[in-house]
């Protein structure tokens, strides 16, 4: 019932708050109460990107490994795998930079009126002669061929200058 959602919320918020002790308690409460360990593991995968993100990119690897470990061996043996992951997450630095930026992208797409801007010609793949003749791929600079960073636009003209990492919802 509702306690299922209350406990996962408490676990999530305890890890976010870097409280490893409370995180273990809420994990134990869920597992000892019969919660599906794969449900908890799926939530940890989400937490790895949503709350830790680029502050510790290995967190996602930890979460996926915990999910796979739980899938392979099940309960009760997998409880220590989840406990290790939960403590790792509670101790990890946190960053919601990517989470916010992607939400800004979604907001941009939802707020757009009319047809979405076309992909710029230089970014389009040109597998046929016709496409090449239409200008697909023309002027594209293949970054690995340059020693220095390449100056090149990757967003449609209508979005030039947009920085989803800096824009904030009001």
Tell me the strand percentage band: under 5%
User: Major beta sheet, specifics?
Assistant: none
What class, by secondary structure content?
mainly alpha
Tell me the distance between the termini: 35 Å
* CATH domain topology of the largest domain: Zinc Finger, Delta Prime, domain 3
> What is the CATH first-level class name of the largest domain?
Mainly Alpha
SS elements, strand count = 0
Query: Mean of residue pLDDT?
Result: 95
The appropriate CATH architecture of the largest domain is: Up-down Bundle
- Gyration radius over CA: 22 Å
Reading the helices and strands in chain order gives HHHHHHH
Shape: elongated
Low-confidence stretches: none
Compute the number of helices: 7
Count of domains: 2
- Give the % helix: 40-55%
